[in-house]
Amino acid sequence: MIGGVIKGGVKKKSTELTCQNCQKKGSIELVSYNEFFHLIFIPFLSVGKTVCSQCQSCKEVLLHHEMPHKLKLEATALKRQTKMPFWHFTGVILLLLFPLYFMFESKSDVKENILAQRELEQSYIASPFIGDVYKYRIDKNTYTTFRVNAISNDSIFMVKNIYTAYNINGLREIKKIGIYENTPTSMPLKELSQLYEERIIFDIIRSKSNALK
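^ that's the sequence the OP posted. Answer follows.
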């Protein structure tokens, strides 16, 4: 059975009351239980509490609304004592947890990708190639790019893009145009690494041909 309603949390109580059908005293037993909807036997949602009585002598069964007044009072008290187990909501809890799990996994993947990208960029800084393009933050809202033109043992020589962007998205356009100054600027490799750590150089673009070397 894929889904349906089943009983759980059964609570029983014997009474000293007289059965109205067979007139036998002390033969009535009250039964209170929870009903819950399940899907492949995983509880999803509590349907509610049910209470009934059964005479152990004549086997007459009465629902709550059919009981005489005194029996109904005891049945109501037993119903109140019957607790609704939290596991009846297991399915609902799982449904709520699944999106949180996938959100956590997604954030973990993003974090791993960021760390992998940082490691790759750090390797580019440690071993620069001619043709590498550095995205460079001039100040809070001003950006440009530099392109590596030559490399020595302890320094690089790079030329500055003649254009300036006033937001990060504008960097794509000025890189695409790709017009650089003729006079290169030299920079020690240690200073290059420091600029990267300070996020003044915040992205490095390397051609596919260089990346495979």
